[in-house]
Write a structure and sequence with these properties.
The protein is of the alpha+beta class. The chain is about 35% helix and about 30% strand. β3 and β4 form a beta hairpin. The two termini are about 30 Å apart.
Amino acid sequence: MHIFDVLGPVMIGPSSSHTAGAVKIGYVTRKLLGEAPVQANILLHGSFADTGSGHGTDRAVIAGLLGCKPDDPQIPSSFEAAKKAGFSFQITRGTLRGAHPNTVKIEVVGEHGSQLEVIGSSVGGGRIRICEIDGIRTDFSGEYNTIIVHNTDTPGHVAQVTTVLAQKT
């Protein structure tokens, strides 16, 4: 058990799940995209949809996509920062079948044309789970280094990846 499991994360509030977790999901999505986002469609599900605006979930996801972390004082003004950065977004509310109540689906386009779809859940205390990337089920927290490989099932592909990894250690 960590001290933040008792006290909660260092964050701009009001909610560790709806604010801190939402920022982290946006931030991990930006890292996975690998470039600055210029456009996003965001779907808030369950409790995120029900109380998202009141708890700042909508602003938190945008802040994370802009590169903010949960303790960044710019979170409440993320909509304005997005506009300044030329980042357009649309936020809707809907239902994702079988999803955790605090879940968001983010479809994002980067400045160089990269596209990505991420579904992530805030599971309490500022902790998150990335549940899906581009329609492929995943399960990681973003707390540790994680390698994401889009594998094409062709002979030698896995060997090529492991060779590169072996050379980098």
